[in-house]
Design brief:
35% helix, cell outer membrane, lipopolysaccharide binding, 168 residues, lipoprotein, LPS-assembly lipoprotein LptE
Length: 168
């Protein structure tokens, strides 16, 4: 009985210490402090990556997404976006056993005066996927899920890099 009380007290002290020092998991509240109040995103209208990035930026109340580049404090330029699929390994019969999927985004961020806030940055994500000829439809669905997962990861990396920009 006494050990349970001591353990509970230790847990309570540890929790209070962590809360008191300001410890917080990275992105645990899903919001980042952006160094600008408005941003223009140069993605195509139907870009899934652009849509998810807009949704994440709107989730935090501090940044406004502008449709007109001249009204924005920051301009997010997409210099390149590509998805790739390469053979990673073959079985003994020369058939594909694994693919390597990749998702690459190259972007930069400028301010309203065309001054570069974030130099051209390339983010490349890779995932491996096993392939089985007898389960082609399932593997196509798995591939789509992996690309969606990479897209979500890419958006989080972009948000962290945007939040790390030092205003000039």
């Amino acid at each position: 009985m006494k050990t349970i009380v001591v353990r509970m007290l230790l847990v309570l002290v540890a929790a209070a210490t962590l809360a008191g020092c300001g410890f917080q998991l990275r992105g645990s509240n899903g919001q980042y402090n952006m160094p600008f109040k408005s941003i223009y995103l140069a993605f195509g209208e139907t870009s899934p990556l652009g849509t998810e990035l807009k949704r994440n930026l709107r989730a935090g109340d501090s940044v406004r997404i502008e449709n007109d580049a001249s009204k924005a404090e920051a301009l997010f330029d997409v210099l390149g976006e590509s998805r790739g699929k390469a053979i990673l390994s073959l079985n003994s019969l020369g058939r594909v056993r694994e693919y390597a999927l990749s998702y690459t985004l190259v972007f930069r961020v400028r301010d309203a005066n065309n001054k570069v806030l974030l130099a051209p940055t390339e983010i490349t994500l890779r995932r491996n996927i096993a392939f089985d000829e007898s389960q082609v439809l399932a593997k196509e669905s798995e591939e789509a899920l992996l690309y969606r997962d990479m897209q979500t990861d890419l958006v989080q990396q972009i948000l962290r890099r945007l939040a790390a920009i030092k205003p000039v």
